[in-house]
Amino acid sequence: MSNAAPPTQPQPGKRVEVAVGILLRGSQFLLGTRPAGKPYAGYWEFPGGKIEPGETVAQALLREFDEELGVAIDPASVEIWRTTEHDYEHAQVRLHWCKVRRWQGEFQMREGQQVAWQRLPTTVSPILPGAYPVLDALAQECLNDASTNSRA
Ligand SMILES: Nc1nc2c([nH]c(=O)n2[C@H]2C[C@H](O)[C@@H](COP(=O)(O)OP(=O)(O)OP(=O)(O)O)O2)c(=O)[nH]1
């Protein structure tokens, strides 16, 4: 038996899989603050969380939206969009980004978080570093849409 203490640093190669929802209302998306007690508490993030063993990305997202916001996502409206990775000092994460356009219920901030509908450029800060690549991708998509429309 080993007396080694549990690692306090993330183990190389062990990525934590995370499901993240980009809840869309027209050109706006929802951000919330990270609750007290978590790494980067108070930073703004997209709703979501770690995928539990045996869960699909969509199942994890449905559970997290219920736990954090008290709303029910329509699974048929979950569009798995892209995957990014980010290395924090507390964890190495792989983020599965999903666009969500339909949900049911009124928002209840079940973790005491603040939420805000945002459009680009965002007006809240600070935002979790791991969310920036996706904000850039959303901005790029807006630019592409604008150029397609102007050519139509
Ligand atoms: N929800 C969310 N997590 C993000 C974003 N960007 C980003 O780098 N992350 C990272 C931060 C965390 O290391 C990880 C999510 O883990 P978490 O600790 O918030 O997940 P959880 O809600 O399942 O937490 P817990 O139950 O273990 O307390 O993903 C984002 O926009 N939204």
Automatic annotation (TrEMBL):
Keywords: DNA damage, DNA repair, DNA replication, Hydrolase, Magnesium, Metal-binding, Mutator protein
Residues that span the membrane, as ranges: none
Single GO biological process annotation from the record: DNA replication
Reactions it catalyzes: 8-oxo-dGTP + H2O = 8-oxo-dGMP + diphosphate + H(+); 8-oxo-GTP + H2O = 8-oxo-GMP + diphosphate + H(+)
Lineage of origin: Bacteria, Pseudomonadati, Pseudomonadota, Betaproteobacteria, Burkholderiales
Cited PANTHER family: 8-OXO-DGTP DIPHOSPHATASE, NUDIX HYDROLASE FAMILY PROTEIN
Cofactor: Mg(2+)
UniProt cross-references to InterPro entries, sorted A to Z: MutT-like (IPR047127), Nudix_hydrolase (IPR020476), NUDIX_hydrolase-like_dom_sf (IPR015797), NUDIX_hydrolase_CS (IPR020084), NUDIX_hydrolase_dom (IPR000086)
Residue ranges occupied by any Nudix hydrolase domain in the UniProt entry: 14-140
Protein name: 8-oxo-dGTP diphosphatase
Gene3D superfamilies: Nucleoside Triphosphate Pyrophosphohydrolase
Organism of this sequence: Lampropedia cohaerens
One Pfam family named in its UniProt record: NUDIX
The family this protein is said to belong to: Belongs to the Nudix hydrolase family.
GO molecular function: 8-oxo-7,8-dihydrodeoxyguanosine triphosphate pyrophosphatase activity; 8-oxo-7,8-dihydroguanosine triphosphate pyrophosphatase activity; 8-oxo-dGDP phosphatase activity; 8-oxo-GDP phosphatase activity; metal ion binding
Enzyme class: hydrolase
Annotated PROSITE patterns: NUDIX, NUDIX_BOX
Enzyme Commission designation: 3.6.1.55
Leader sequence segment: none
